[in-house]
Q: What sequence folds into this?
């Protein structure tokens, strides 16, 4: 199988340079059976004994991306350090490695992923491995492999081992024919990016597995997520993170979207809070498997004006990237998240002024150093 090995090697090299934290290897297709996946008869695993507790045993895939490390920190405070395992194919930074359990996990290696679930008695799985919108458009075959084939592996393992599974979706799951202002939970979805297509696929497959196999599948459509402790990872909304880094380092920011491009956004603490809340919500409270969640909606111009209250000398220019702009123009301007607020009590904490102040409170020391220089 020299061709397969060469493809696998090439894909792995590509992933090492991406920000998604997802690994790829070529694996044989297995037949869907009652469990729902037929397991190879020669599969062998060793057992590890853990003390019983009321806390879930958690695995986070793609854990070195924007959300995984923060989610692990939140869950470890809630459920105990050793009950939450972070995984990725990349080498973690020292502070991540020593903060709690970390394990190598390639989401396209079905047998390895299944062994991790069995050996560590996983009960909750957060599946964050994905290529984001702009990166996905630059490498569609890789995005298809990571975002769709990897999802199939996770769904089968979660159904077989009765896991509670969380898979994030996105504003990118909607398209130019969807209502944009506001966008409801249930409406036409015809995205025009491989990222969006893969997320619609994830929503529908998760709902299907819920009704077909009883899988406890839960999903939130995230808006653009803004955080102080991560670098932009190839998403269309990443300008809203980049502006803070550029304001601090150079005092100049070049935006790749038009100044009046309105998109829903959220501070990372609200995002992580919503994720934990929907996972802890009683099953009988959930009227659907996938929910919109929202906090605020703003344009690059509105964000820049708020940032300039903290860094008045910031110079903002616009050099529109046609690919990203086309993606943004097909996405919602505002999310209708009334179902999440009604069913399980979702409520955000951060609006735009609080978001900007919080970002600069985290980055303030760096800002003062930059200004002194």
A:
């Amino acid at each position: 199988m020299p061709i397969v090995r060469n493809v696998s090697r090439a894909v792995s090299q590509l992933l090492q340079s991406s920000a998604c934290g997802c690994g790829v290897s070529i694996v044989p297709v297995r037949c869907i059976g009652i469990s729902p996946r037929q397991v190879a008869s020669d599969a062998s695993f060793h057992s590890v004994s853990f003390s019983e507790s009321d806390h879930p045993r958690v695995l986070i895939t793609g854990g070195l991306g924007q959300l995984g490390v923060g989610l692990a920190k939140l869950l470890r405070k809630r459920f105990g350090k050793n009950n939450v395992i972070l995984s990725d194919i990349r080498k973690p930074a020292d502070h991540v490695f020593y903060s709690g359990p970390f394990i190598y996990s390639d989401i396209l290696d079905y047998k390895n992923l299944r062994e991790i679930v069995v050996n560590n008695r996983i009960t909750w799985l957060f599946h964050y491995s994905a290529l984001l919108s702009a990166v996905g458009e630059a490498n569609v075959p890789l995005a298809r492999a990571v975002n769709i084939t990897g999802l199939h592996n996770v769904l089968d393992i979660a159904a077989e081992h009765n896991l509670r599974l969380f898979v994030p979706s996105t504003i990118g799951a909607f398209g130019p024919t969807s209502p944009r202002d506001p966008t409801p939970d249930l409406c036409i979805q015809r995205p025009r990016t491989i990222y969006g297509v893969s997320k619609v696929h994830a929503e529908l497959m998760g709902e299907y597995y819920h009704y077909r196999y009883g899988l406890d599948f839960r999903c939130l459509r995230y808006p653009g997520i803004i955080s102080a402790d991560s670098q932009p990872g190839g998403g269309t909304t990443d300008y809203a993170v980049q502006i803070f880094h550029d304001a601090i380092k150079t005092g100049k920011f070049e935006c790749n979207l038009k100044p009046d491009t309105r998109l829903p956004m959220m501070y990372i603490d609200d995002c992580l809070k919503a994720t934990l809340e929907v996972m802890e919500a009683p099953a009988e409270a959930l009227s659907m498997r996938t929910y919109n969640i929202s906090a605020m909606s703003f344009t690059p111009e509105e964000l820049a004006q708020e940032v300039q209250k903290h860094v008045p000398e910031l110079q903002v220019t616009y050099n529109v990237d046609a690919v990203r702009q086309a993606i943004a123009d097909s996405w919602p301007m505002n999310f209708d998240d009334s179902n999440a607020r009604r069913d399980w009590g979702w409520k955000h904490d951060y609006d735009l002024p609080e978001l900007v102040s919080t970002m600069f409170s985290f980055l303030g020391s760096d800002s003062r150093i930059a200004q002194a220089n």
DSSP finds 13 helices and 13 strands in the chain. The longest strand covers residues 216-222. The domain at 56-227+266-292 is CATH 3.40.50.720 (Rossmann fold).
